[in-house]
């Protein structure tokens, strides 16, 4: 009986060992076979971040084994970036990583002492760079901030009020503005992002909701306006439009 029991135990051991070897071999196939190597990163929801940004932030390398890539770790790295509000990461066989992102919305650019900054509605610096980028958000001019970096908050009250105004605009209107100029601390002028820029005299930063609505209406109708407009002034209760001579 003892011999039979030993043979059974040996048989179970060999079966278990065989299962482990086969499992390890299958796992090795999934991990190391070239077909399961990361070849493509598909991005969904990005508008301002580039694929290069995502690869750098997530520490992702094209060519690495897909199953060695820990999606929860990559997701955590991306979620820690201030420019990203929400993110999900998942593998898609045989060679793709899918990254779905909800970005924080940059409202404006502003010049600083070492380059340029992207600001959100709260005046938080979302991005910084030395050379000016082509982006569909307006540039705030007439105010220069110093020694601010990603994650810092701007303390210029005029700039904060401008951001509060821009936050009221829909995305299409925001994309139609090229510049918001601080002429004086209590007088703001904007320019349309058209071939021939039209001046929009916002004036004092008051009646913001009303002026936001007027700005949206004016820019929406500008393309179909048969007359060339020199400027529009929202300082008055009834907007004043000056046609070009």
* Stretches with pLDDT under 50, minimum 5 residues: 24-28
Strand content: 25-35%
Number of helices: 6
- Computed over alpha carbons, the radius of gyration is 28 Å
The overall pLDDT, averaged over residues, is 85
Count every beta strand, where a strand is a DSSP E run of 2 or more residues.
12
Termini, distance in Å?
113 Å
Structural class: alpha/beta
Q: What is the CATH third-level topology name of the largest domain?
A: Rossmann fold
Helix-strand topology string = HEHHEEEEEEHHEEEHEE
Q: What characteristic shape results from the CA principal axes?
A: elongated
Instruction: Specify the CATH class of the largest domain.
Output: Alpha Beta
CATH architecture level-2 label of the largest domain: 3-Layer(aba) Sandwich
What fraction, in percent, of the residue positions are helical?
A: 25-40%
What's the story with the biggest beta sheet? 9 strands, mixed
Count of discrete domains: 2
Please give the order of strands in the largest beta sheet: 6-5-4-7-8-9-10-11-12
Structure, described:
By secondary structure, the chain is an alpha/beta fold. It folds into two domains: 34-103, Roll (Ubiquitin-like (UB roll)), CATH 3.10.20; 108-243, Rossmann fold (3-Layer(aba) Sandwich). 32% of the residues lie in helices and 29% in strands. The protein is built from six helices and twelve strands. A nine-stranded mixed sheet has the order 6-5-4-7-8-9-10-11-12. A hairpin with a 3-residue loop joins strand 2 and strand 3 (96-103). The protein is elongated, with a radius of gyration of 28 Å.
